[in-house]
Write a structure and sequence with these properties.
Layout (H helix, E strand, L loop, with lengths): L1 E2 L2 E2 L4 H13 L4 H11 L42 E3 L2 E9 L9 E9 L9 E6 L7 H6 L7 H6 E7 L16 H4 L8 H22 L8 H15 L4 E6 L1 H12 L4 E7 L8 H24 L12 H14 L2 E5 L2 E5 L1 H13 L5 H12 L4 H11 L10 H12 L6 H14 L4 H7 L25 E8 L5 H10 L3 E9 L11 H11 L7 E2 L1
Parallel strand pairs: 6-7, 6-8, 8-9, 9-12, 12-13, 13-14
Antiparallel strand pairs: 1-2, 3-4, 4-5, 5-7, 10-11
Helix pairs in contact: 1-2, 1-13, 7-8, 9-15, 9-16, 11-13, 15-16
Length: about 525
C-alpha cells in the first residue's frame, strides 16, 4: 500500500518509520536495519500500495500536460548550500512546466552530506525513497549506520523532496485527514461503499480547492526532468542514482528521457511500467497476501509466536478481522484515546508486512494485543503508514502520494470501474485486494486527467542499469523486477532472496558489495546474480 505503484506500496519512508517503531520496542539494530532496507523501497497500507488508480504509469511520449515536454534547456548555477541539521541544504528553482517555462516555477529542496574522502570522491549519489510523496531529504539525513562506508566516503549523498512534497513546493489538500480513513476501504455493504466514495470525493475536492493550479504539474515525468536539473546544478556530467520502490520508476523515466546521461542507476524494489493499473493493483494485493500467508505459517510453527493461537493463527486472524469490522477496538497512542477500525487494521497489518521477517514478532504481538481488546500497536503501525501525527494532523506525504499517483495514472476509471475491479481483487487476494482498490478511490474523482499509460520503457543507449528484486517483496513483487530488467535495453537483474520491501543494504557479502562496486566503479554484476 505504500507505493504509487499500488496503494499498498506507499513508500520507503513507511519502512523507515516501522524501523523506528521496532527500535522503540527493543528490536536489535541488525533487525531494525533489515526492516529499514525493506522500507527503503516502498510501502503498502493494505497490501497494494497507495491507490489502485494511483499506479504510476510509464509513458513513451515526450510531451504531457505534466510539463516534461523537452530536455532542460537552461543550465542552473551551483546550489547555494548552507549548513542545516545533519548536512547542507539548498533550494533550486524549476519550471512549473518544462514545455512552457513562462507559466512559473516550483521550489526544489535539496540536502547533501559531503563525501568523507574528498580526494577519492566519485561524484554525487542522488537518492529517492519512493512513494510517491516520500522525502528524499529525510532518507539521506537518516541514513542507517549500516549504509556502506565506501559510499559515504566516495560520494556526496544527495536527497531531494520531489515537487509537490516536503520542503519543495508542496501540494495542499488539508492536514486533517481522519475522515479519509474513517470508512472501510474494503466495503461490503451499499452504505459502506457510499461512505468511502463520499470521503474520497471530499479529499479530491479539497485538493482542487487548495492546490488546483499545482495539480497538473506534479507528474513523475516532470520530476525526472527535475532530476536532470539537479544533476546539472551539482556539476555531474552523468547521473549516479539509487532509487527505491516508486523511486525506481523515476530512475526508469530519467533513463528514458536522458539515456546518454546515465552513469549508474540502482533500481531497488522495481516497478514495471508495462503493467496496466488493473494488473498492478491485483498483483500488489497478491504480494501482501503471500506475505501474510508466510507470517501466519511461521507463527503456526513457532510456539513462541505471540499470536500462535493454539497453533491456528490463521483462524484467529480472520476472526479478529471480522470482529473489528463489526465493532472497532479502542487503544491509546501517546496517552490519547484512539480507535482501531477495519481500515486502520488492514493498513496497520500491511505496514508491518513491509518489514519482512524482522517485523513478524512485532506484528504477532500487535495482533495478540488487539485480540485482547487493545488496538494501540496496530494503530501505531497505521499512523506510520499514513504519517499521522499525535495531534491528529497529517504530513504532506499521503496527499502528495495521491496527487502524484492520480495524475500519473492511468486511472482504473470511474466509480463503477473501481467497483468492478474490487470484486476481482477480493477474489484474488481476500485480505488485501478490495482494500488496495479502495485506497485509490480518490483518483475516481480526481480533478485533473491522468497523463500516463502503461508501456514498456527501453531507454535505448543507456549505460547498464541494475534492477534489484526481492523474492518475498510484498509491495513490488519480484516479477516486476524481472519485467523491468527485461524491458530496459541495458537492464541487469540482481535478485535478493528474502522477505520485505526492497533489499539494499542487505547486510550480506553478496548483494551489498555488488551494488557498491557498481555505484563506485560503474561495473555491473553479472545479469541474473542471486544473493
Amino acid at each position: 500500500m505504500c507505493d504509487r505503484i499500488g496503494l499498498l506500496s506507499m513508500w520507503c519512508s513507511v519502512s523507515c518509520r516501522v524501523s523506528d517503531h521496532l527500535r522503540s520496542r527493543g528490536v536489535g539494530a541488525a533487525a531494525a536495519l533489515a526492516v529499514l532496507a525493506v522500507a527503503l523501497g516502498g510501502c503498502s497500507g493494505s497490501g497494494s500500495g497507495r491507490s489502485a488508480s494511483s499506479t504510476t504509469r510509464a509513458t513513451t511520449s515526450t510531451t504531457s500536460s505534466a510539463g516534461a515536454g523537452r530536455a532542460n534547456a537552461t543550465t542552473p548555477g551551483p546550489p547555494a548550500w548552507s549548513s542545516c541539521t545533519g548536512g547542507e541544504c539548498a533550494t533550486l528553482t524549476a519550471p512549473l512546466d518544462y514545455a512552457h517555462p513562462e507559466l512559473g516555477t516550483v521550489r526544489i529542496a535539496l540536502f547533501r552530506i559531503k563525501a568523507r574522502k574528498r580526494a577519492a570522491r566519485v561524484g554525487s549519489l542522488l537518492m529517492n525513497p519512493g512513494g510517491p510523496g516520500a522525502s528524499g531529504i529525510q532518507l539521506v539525513r537518516n541514513l542507517p549506520l549500516g549504509f556502506p562506508a565506501e559510499l559515504r566516503d566516495r560520494f556526496d549523498l544527495v536527497g531531494w523532496d520531489p515537487r509537490g512534497t516536503g520542503d519543495s513546493t508542496p501540494v495542499d489538500c488539508g492536514d486533517r485527514l481522519d475522515y479519509l480513513f474513517a470508512p472501510d476501504i474494503s466495503p461490503e455493504t451499499a452504505a459502506s461503499e457510499q461512505a468511502l466514495e463520499s470521503a474520497s470525493k471530499q479529499f479530491a475536492d479539497a485538493c482542487a480547492a487548495r492546490s488546483g493550479r499545482l495539480l497538473p504539474y506534479l507528474s513523475s515525468e516532470a520530476t525526472a526532468h527535475d532530476m536532470d536539473l539537479i544533476r546539472q546544478a551539482l556539476g555531474d556530467p552523468k547521473l549516479t542514482y539509487l532509487g527505491y520502490s516508486y523511486g525506481t520508476y523515476l530512475g526508469t523515466l530519467y533513463a528514458h528521457f536522458f539515456p546518454d546521461r546515465v552513469r549508474a542507476l540502482v533500481l531497488d524494489g522495481a516497478v514495471d511500467p508495462a503493467l496496466s493499473a488493473h494488473d498492478v493493483t491485483i498483483q500488489q494485493a497478491q504480494g501482501f497476501e503471500k506475505a501474510l500467508d508466510a507470517f501466519l505459517a511461521d507463527c503456526a510453527n513457532d510456539p513462541q509466536c505471540a499470536f500462535s493461537s493454539r497453533g491456528d493463527p490463521r483462524a484467529a486472524y480472520d476472526a479478529l478481522a471480522a470482529a473489528v469490522d463489526v465493532r472497532p477496538i479502542s487503544g491509546r497512542v501517546d496517552g490519547r484515546p484512539r480507535t482501531l477500525g477495519p481500515t486502520q487494521f488492514e493498513l496497520g497489518v500491511s505496514t508491518a508486512l513491509y518489514g519482512g521477517r524482522a517485523a513478524w514478532p512485532d506484528l504477532a504481538l500487535a495482533l495478540a494485543h488487539a485480540a485482547r481488546g487493545d488496538g494501540s500497536d496496530l494503530i501505531q503501525f497505521f499512523d506510520a503508514y499514513v504519517n499521522r501525527r499525535t495531534n491528529g494532523t497529517y504530513s504532506v506525504e499521503y496527499p502528495a502520494f495521491l496527487a502524484i499517483g492520480c495524475l500519473d495514472g492511468p486511472s482504473l476509471g470511474d466509480v463503477a470501474a473501481y467497483r468492478q475491479v474490487e470484486v476481482e481483487a477480493r477474489a484474488a487476494a481476500p485480505h488485501f485486494g478490495a482494500g488496495n482498490v479502495g485506497l485509490g478511490m480518490p483518483c475516481a474523482f480526481w480533478p485533473v486527467p491522468s497523463v500516463g499509460r502503461a508501456a514498456p520503457i527501453v531507454a535505448a543507449g543507456a549505460a547498464p542499469i541494475v534492477v534489484v528484486g526481492t523474492t518475498g517483496d510484498p509491495a513490488t513483487p519480484v516479477a516486476w523486477a524481472h519485467g523491468l530488467a527485461g524491458e530496459l535495453g541495458s537492464g541487469v537483474l540482481l535478485l535478493h532472496r528474502g522477505e520485505g520491501h526492497t533489499a539494499f543494504p542487505a547486510g550480506d557479502r553478496c548483494l551489498d558489495p555488488a551494488i557498491v562496486r557498481y555505484l563506485v566503479d560503474a561495473v555491473a554484476p553479472a545479469a541474473g546474480t542471486v544473493c
